[in-house]
């Protein structure tokens, strides 16, 4: 990518199952373009210490826990290198060139396996003391059902992957991860599919409410692959308005934020990682 965010060349490869092979894959890619880049921007799952550039608990890539890939990359290629959490990278992409541009306070919520994202307050992305801010998966929505259960947290209740699997189960589709089939049933207002979808959107509305009580954002941006579905944003807005209408005091105090789909879809991580790098270089 260039400094303006234009993608010059893009590719993908399978993630290895161990740290040594993961690092070697990164080296193999970078070696191909060794004379063509002046910096390296990365994002990854997990809690990212952007100061010391250490990845803590690498999300799905657990072998990244405690690793500092940046040191080895800087030593090998002698160029500035940055790393940022993937959800926060989504927020940075929207702040740079998307729906959060010029927004003083707002939030990015990426709906995927769990709930990630980032909060913008006073024009700045929040990292928090331990770089945990924005990890929405651990927001507790069903405390009465047992805090020891994953099903009480947004990691499950606001998981797009779980919602799609549940819809495919009830419509009899053996391909449980088939998002297209799930949303075909939802858009056709299949009764069982619609019930699951509406409960999912109601959970998202609760998550938005909880974030709003803290940041009082003017705009909430919904990301992830399913954000391209128009019915998703419409239903989340409906469920949030319904939530506010359920309690007069709540409805009078909480002002409805603008809830919109993210501008960037599958490339959000790329733009956000690049913007994090540009901000680091500018410091």
TrEMBL record:
InterPro entries: ATPase_NBD, ROK
Cleavable signal peptide: none
Gene3D superfamilies xref list: 3.30.420.40
Pfam families per UniProt: ROK
Top-level taxon of origin: Bacteria
Family the UniProt entry places it in: Belongs to the ROK (NagC/XylR) family.
PANTHER family: ROK (REPRESSOR, ORF, KINASE) FAMILY, SUGAR KINASE
Name of the molecule in the record: ROK family protein
Organism expressing this protein natively: Lactobacillus gigeriorum DSM 23908 = CRBIP 24.85
Organism placement in taxonomy: Bacteria, Bacillati, Bacillota, Bacilli, Lactobacillales
């Amino acid at each position: 990518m260039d400094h303006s965010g234009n993608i010059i060349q893009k590719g993908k490869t399978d993630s290895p199952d161990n740290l040594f092979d993961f690092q070697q894959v990164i080296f193999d890619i970078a070696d191909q373009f060794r004379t063509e880049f002046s910096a390296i921007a990365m994002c990854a799952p997990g809690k990212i210490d952007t100061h010391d550039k250490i990845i803590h608990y690498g999300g799905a890539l657990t072998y990244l826990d405690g690793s500092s890939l940046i040191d080895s990359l800087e030593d090998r290629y002698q160029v500035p290198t940055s790393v940022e959490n993937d959800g926060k990278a989504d927020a940075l992409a929207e702040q740079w060139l998307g729906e959060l541009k010029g927004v003083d306070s707002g939030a990015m919520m990426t709906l995927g396996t769990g709930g990630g994202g980032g909060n913008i307050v006073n024009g700045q992305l929040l990292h928090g003391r331990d770089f945990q801010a924005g990890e929405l998966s651990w927001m507790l929505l069903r405390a009465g059902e047992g805090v020891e259960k994953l099903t009480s947290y947004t990691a499950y209740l606001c998981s797009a992957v779980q919602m799609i699997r549940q819809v495919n189960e009830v419509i009899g589709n053996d391909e449980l991860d088939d998002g297209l089939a799930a949303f075909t049933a939802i858009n056709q207002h299949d009764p069982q599919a619609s019930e699951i979808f509406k409960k999912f959107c109601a959970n998202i509305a609760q998550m938005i409410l909880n974030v709003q009580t803290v940041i009082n954002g003017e705009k909430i941006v919904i990301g992830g692959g399913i954000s391209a579905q128009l019915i998703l944003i419409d239903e989340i807005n409906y469920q949030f308005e319904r939530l506010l209408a359920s309690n007069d005091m709540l409805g009078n105090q909480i002002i409805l934020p603008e809830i919109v789909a993210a501008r960037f879809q599958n490339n959000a991580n790329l733009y956000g990682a690049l913007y994090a790098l540009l901000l680091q270089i500018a410091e």
